[in-house]
User: Fold these one by one.
Assistant:
Number 1:
Amino acid sequence: MFRRREAVPFAFVAEADRFRSNVTPPARQRPSISEVTGRTLIGLTVVAGLVGSLLFGLPAMEAGPAATGHGQQSEASHGR
């Protein structure tokens, strides 16, 4: 169904591994103080949101009286 491509000679592969470019990439620019501050504030906001959701969510996940089956019953159920 599919045709196999021509095999690549081993010498070509070995030569490609040794190839070095004489063009150097430009140096990376250092982020400015405002960029570093912005990234830090975004990181702190994300962490604070996760901690806040954990603090508000833990009491809701605890097994309270309603989960044990010994919850309050209405007065109407006692009269029957």
Note: The first helix runs from residue 10 to 17.
Number 2:
Amino acid sequence: MNCCGQKRQGLQFNSAIDTSAYKSETENNLTTTDQKPTYFRYNGNSELQVRGIFHITYTFSAQRRQFLVHSEDVSIMRGYADLTEVREP
């Protein structure tokens, strides 16, 4: 069962803002090399925290409505009525 370990190796966490060609994939300090993340927009008024598969916590609020979500967490986000998948940021 080492398939999960292989997916984790594809993740890189950056502390600085990345200005490379992958800029659209580096929001939330997350860069993926083999997967495409998806944007989600929050439609609620209070704060919503969602914890992803790799323990990434996405905190949506009235001030921060849109996040780039790792592709492994997309199915989790689709389970929340106040979150809408965004095709174009």
Note: The longest helix spans residues 3-9.
Number 3:
Amino acid sequence: MKYSKEFKEEALKLSDDIGLKKAAQQLGIQYYTLSDWRSKRNEAIRNQKYQMSDEELKKRNLELERENFRIQKSK
């Protein structure tokens, strides 16, 4: 099945907030599909890390803070 870019972006945001497993279950997609999207997103971010604007860096920092909060909450 082919998913739109918008769907993937929203799925990744959800997975950042509630975790991969829960997001995949909630969306009815395979865990490994969502995991692959996240890996590709993270790789693209690493490749662009020195080319990010201040606004992009702020957005990424917020995403990472949310992920850290989610991880701390799940411990």
Note: The longest helix spans residues 54-74.
